[in-house]
Amino acid sequence: MRYSTKLEASVARAAALDTVNDALHVLELLGERGQIAVKDVVAELKCSRSSAYRIVRTLQDRGWVVEAHFGAYELGPQASALGLIAIARPSLRDAALPIMRALVERFGETVTLSVLLGRERVCIDQIESPKEIRMTVRVGQPYPLYAGGSGKAILMALEPEARTAYLREVPRRRLAPNTIIERRALERALAENAKRGYVVSVAERDPEAFAVAAPIRDQSGVVGCIALCGPVSRWRATAAATYGAAVVDETSVICRERQNSSSLRS
Which of 58, 75, 92 is the endpoint of a domain? Predict the structure, then answer.
């Protein structure tokens, strides 16, 4: 867009800043109250209902806000992920990034860092494959633990009581051709994964993707995982052991660093 005068450009910039401030105000309001309605935005910003709805809808489209129930909104996955990144940055994320880069350089596939959030896992960072066709994960999007390499790597590393409760209480549905939804079959698969220390997933959560993942633990238990992932078209079963050993070796470095830092703090 081009402006005919400096004044018009200045007015446009001011309007854009006002919009950003209004959106941040809405996020702060959600942080304070947990849930809000459009009428609350109207009251706080002293704006029209249409303007308030437009701000909320934009935040919703970008994943910063979700509709909890009709007419009420709460913070969405993008806000949760940003908070997790801020918390993890001094330790987990900084420790993981060099390892993630090394795996990408070695294998040429995308590498993701996910953390456990409640009973789901959320990707908080990724380094994408340099290849034109590559797998990517939506940062901040919650995913189930029962399907896919990252989720199952975390699930297998949970304490037995927590894992049993998850399998008993969380409903499962088929997300892709190879999703395991039967409880006993999933328990067997998790036990086999635990013996070798990593998870191999091919078309379990996403029909077009594979992943090889290993959990990250500290003294409190499992906190997240590292996953090497790519398109199914490049998957070779003969590479599973090589991928798995590399991911386990690299992830163990993070585990040792976190356990050592926890020991120093205590």
Answer: 75
